[in-house]
């Protein structure tokens, strides 16, 4: 698994509220808007930090065709088998601690 490039806090703040959109065509071509960071990627899984949560794309022969973190856009090709959203770890951590401290 390869780690994605780090982005500066300035870029992260600049794109804190772009609209998140995902378009999947025939399970073989995907475009994602609202991408804040690429957490990791290989040919079977791509994990993205978006402004709507952490997005995991799983499949076969997945490739990042185009990435523009300045605009928050990403294009993926390959066979997509599943797409899953999860909450940001930081939000989950607060929720867990908040539940313990009730």
Hey, roughly how much beta strand do the residues contain?
over 45%
Question: What is Rg?
Answer: 14 Å
Mean pLDDT: 82
> Between the first and last Cα atoms, what is the distance in angstroms?
38 Å
Enumerate how many helices there are, as a single number.
2
Largest sheet: 7 strands, antiparallel
Number of strands: 7
Major beta sheet, strand line-up: 1-4-5-6-7-3-2
- Helix amount, in percent? 10-25%
Q: Which structural category do the helix and sheet elements fall into?
A: alpha+beta
Instruction: Give the low-confidence spans.
Output: 90-95
Q: Globular, elongated, flat, extended or rod-shaped: what is the shape?
A: globular
Order of helices and strands: EHEEEEEEH
How would you characterize this protein structure?
The protein has helices at residues 9-14, 89-100, and strands spanning 2-3, 21-25, 29-33, 35-41, 45-50, 53-68, 73-86. With 102 residues, it is α+β, with helices and mostly antiparallel strands. It has a 7-stranded antiparallel beta sheet, with no helix packed on it. Strand 6 and strand 7 (73-86) form a beta hairpin.
